[in-house]
Amino acid sequence: MAEKHTSPRVFFPRTVSEALDLANDQPDFVFWAGGTHLAGDSKSRDMIDLPRTVIALGFVEELVRASRSEHGLELGSMITLDRLTSIGRSALPTGLSEALSGIGTRPLRCRATLGGHLGRKGIVGDLAPLLQILDSRIETRYLRERRGRRKPTAATRKIPVSLLASDEGLRKGELITRISIPNEPWNFGAVKKIFPESKPGRVLIFSALARLDKGMLSEWRMALSDGLGHILRDREMEVGMAGKPLPLSKKDLDGMVEAIRLLTEPWSDREYERKAAMGLARGFMIRAGS
Ligand SMILES: Cc1cc2nc3c(=O)[nH]c(=O)nc-3n(C[C@H](O)[C@H](O)[C@H](O)COP(=O)(O)OP(=O)(O)OC[C@H]3O[C@@H](n4cnc5c(N)ncnc54)[C@H](O)[C@@H]3O)c2cc1C
Fold first, then answer.
1. Contact yes or no for 106/206 (Cβ under 8 A)
2. N or C: which end of the chain has fewer CB within 10 A?
């Protein structure tokens, strides 16, 4: 029997409240930002199955605003990756320009948005590990039922990037509105993306930040991702190395490499990525000390 395909109904809200009301009214909907993920892979023409209703966010003005305050950078979720790049390397948080330039091609970055990049279920994009170590927070808005009220009321939540992939992450109907990146103490950083040879579809994303101060490693952070599951990070190792004089001693470098070996144990079937992560961290520290 032939399957019956019906096109989804598309709504174009003008405000966040309208978008939330629409989401609340529709049992089966999706938020559409740049559509690069939802439209799927153009080579295989596999468009992701769209639900009955599409809520397109392109006309919600509030979501395309960017501002800088004494606390840091506030970025609306509908800002495209290209617009973010155009802010300029020196005005962006350490490492962000590098991370952005590794994502697809310019035409893709002109459409893909920050909110869409972070809103994909079960996927850790290139930016999430860096945003996590930059202590970024994701502001969301959603509707919640209140006792004594006939209609649900709007509420706001701030989610650390580390919780995005957890049960406390994005819930159905929750709209990412802003990404807040606090002012940073970092003056040295690196974001590297490695594709293991002859292993199609695999990737290692290495993100590291450091504060170098009068020949010392005052503070540092590192996050590793395979683009799929959770981001790997070892706070104990980061704290343990803070305050060490630069260049790091062989003992300190070997200790760090051993800690990364333990950290990457969940990747027991990804020996290439584990070795690459150890090499990248060692190289990062050697450059920091030179
Ligand atoms: C050819 C190609 C190459 C790519 N290369 C890379 C790469 O190198 N590295 C990488 O990390 N990624 C890569 N990507 C993925 C790309 O980063 C994402 O497709 C893009 O960032 C998604 O943004 P979007 O605005 O198009 O989202 P959409 O496709 O519109 O949405 C993505 C998901 O997020 C949800 N969503 C969107 N906005 C919101 C919001 N405000 N609140 C809540 N949920 C929301 C949507 O409902 C959907 O589930 C690539 C994609 C393509 C097509």
1. no
2. N
**Residue 66, H or E segment:** strand 66-69
Burial 21-32 (b: 16+ CB within 10 A, else e): bbbeebeebbbb
142 touches ligand 1 (CB under 6 Å): no
> Nearest C-alpha to atom 50 of ligand 1 is from which residue?
104
**Token pair listed for 228:** 């799929």
Task: Tell if the pTM clears 0.90, that is, is over it.
Answer: yes
Report domain extents, the chain: 9-56, 61-182, 188-288
Under a CB-based contact definition with an 8 Å cutoff, are residues 38 and 137 in contact? no
- Class for the domain spanning 188-288: alpha beta
Amino acid in position 32 = W
107 in ligand 1 pocket by Cβ < 6 Å? no
pLDDT score of 46: 59
Report pLDDT for 87.
92
φ and ψ at residue 9, rounded to 5 degrees: -85, 135
For ligand 1, say whether the CB of 120 is within 6 Å of any of its atoms: yes
**Chunked mean pLDDT (size 10), the chain, 290 residues:** 69 97 93 93 61 95 94 96 94 95 96 97 92 97 85 93 87 96 93 89 95 96 90 96 97 97 95 96 96
Spatial contact of 66 and 79, defined as CB atoms under 8 Å apart:
yes
pLDDT at 47: 63
AA letter at 1: M
Architecture of domain 61-182: 2-Layer Sandwich (3.30)
String of b and e for 188-226 (b: at least 16 CB within 10 Å)?
Answer: bbbbbbbebeeeeebbbbbbbbbbbeeeebbbbbbbbbb
**pLDDT at 274 (0 to 100):** 96
Amino acid symbol at 145 = E
> Residue 243 in contact with residue 252, Cβ under 8 Å?
no
